[in-house]
Amino acid sequence: MELPFAESYKIKMVESIKRSTRQDRKKWIEEADYNLFNIKSDRVFIDLLTDSGTGAMSDKQWSEMMLGDESYAGASSFFKLKDAIKDITGFDYFLPTHQGRAAENVLFSSKIKEGDIIPGNSHFDTTKGHIEYRKAHAIDCTIDEAFITTLDHPFKGNVDLNKLEDVLKSHPKEKIPLIILTITCNSSGGQPVSMENMRALKEMADKYGIQVFFDSARFAENAYFIKMREEAYKDMSIREIVREMFSYADGMTMSSKKDAIVNMGGFIGFRHEEDYDKASVFNILFEGYLSYGGMSGRDMNALAQGLYDGTEFDYLDTRIKQVAYLGKKLKDYGIPIQYPYGGHAIFIDARKFLPKVPKEQYIAQTLGIEIYIEGGVRGVEIGTLLADRDPETGENRYPDLELLRLAIPRRVYTNNHMDYIAAAIINVYDRRDQIKTGFEIVKEAPILRHFTVKLKKI
Ligand code: F0G
What pLDDT is attached to residue 414? Predict the structure, then answer.
């Protein structure tokens, strides 16, 4: 008999999670103004709000916590992290930050000014937020295939190089401080970018004299997909692939809360000393001194170890296969999800799931609320709420995809949990014809409104 697949780790510490009744959950979600961010975590049975900062650290990472050096300047933890970053990514210079959006804030403060254009594949919401806050524009050059959820394409995070070249040709070089490539591309469904696309993009950027930075939160998952899907890389190790990927970038921002499996942390990697120098000023201003930048010594140690944990093939294989296990359960029942399965999450196509709910009534949010009420499973809307209003017209933006994301924390849940999640979603699917109305906004913030929005049932 062929041996089945099994997780590449065993469990040393557990945390209880609480069941609740449908009646409880109906009351709790109303109290939370129908905003899933507003629900207390002990009112959630399985939490798929995010894979960010929610992973389980390894015994090696916890050991490293005890060895942290909390010196203000020149801590050994800083040098440990610097060596790990150099080893894994190849970048000589780095700045620690407290998380990914802080890395964006520091980097963009040194690079982006009003009226600038920042092309790339679909920018993540904080990235776009930081660009638009500076009155600059993020231009999405993702391939069209990415927006057809049913289409199975191996690299839906790829940039359409024709679209990119049009942008590069139609604006003066001084207006384009950098191109941002998000790996994997969260906003298009946790979809990877191929090595071929990275290489070609860098060649084009060099031709136009423009820098490329990677938004690298899930770089290791991207490398795994390259190994599995790009013929030339099938025999290379994840770390070799990662090194080649970053060779096509002038720098990177990192939310370490994802692929480096820590609960908090981030950094910026730089190839060029002058970029590091310019950003350093803002790091001291916003984050902290250069050798800690918003992180404690123990956190830098755990992060250094996490970069190694997160780039091990066996770990990544377990991780990506668990996400696919959930994806297949939903697929087999005919639930409309994005293909191929994402690296960190399964994305449900909410417009197809709930065709009777009008787009003005926040379809994906409606679905997220139904699934929470059904089973205490918390997903997150990646749709009209997240897309915010157009900063110029004030109108709602209706994105090409209206998705509900089920993000799977790393090394946290078992496949029994995946079975439970699938059952809850299937139950909602079975009664989808009765769900005809959604929600309206009572109160919202001018930017990144999804975090704090208050909603009312229609
Ligand atoms: N870039 C990408 C691609 C991300 O997915 C995130 C965060 C960030 C940057 C910002 O990093 O949270 O450390 O400040 N994504 C989380 C998510 C929040 O749920 O997908 P951060």
Answer: 96
Q: How far is CA 426 from the centre of its chain?
A: 25
Active site residue 125: yes
The reply to whether 215 belongs to the active site is yes
Per annotation, catalytic residue among 51, 69, 116, 215 = 215
Instruction: Give the up-direction half-sphere exposure of residue 170: CA atoms within 13 A in the CB hemisphere.
Output: 10
Same fold? 22-51+312-457, 60-309: no
CATH topology of domain 60-309: Aspartate Aminotransferase; domain 2 (3.40.640)
CATH 3.90.1150.10: does it fit domain 22-51+312-457?
A: yes
Give me the average pLDDT of each 10-residue run along the chain (458 residues): 93 96 98 98 98 98 98 96 98 98 98 98 93 96 93 96 98 98 92 98 98 98 98 98 98 98 98 98 97 97 98 98 98 96 96 97 98 98 92 90 95 97 98 98 92 96
Q: Report domain extents, the chain.
A: 22-51+312-457, 60-309
Q: Report the separation in Å between the CA atom of 348 and the middle of ligand 1, taken as the mean of its atom positions.
A: 19
Rounded to whole angstroms, the maximal C-alpha distance in the chain is 63
Active site residue 72: yes
State residue 265 phi and psi, 5-degree precision: 145, 160
Burial class of 328 by CB neighbour count within 10 A (0 to 12, 13 to 18, 19+) = middle
User: Considering 80, 111, 258, 417, which one is annotated as catalytic?
Assistant: 258
Catalytic residue chosen out of the listed positions 69, 125, 349, 388: 125
291 lines ligand 1 (CB under 6 A): no
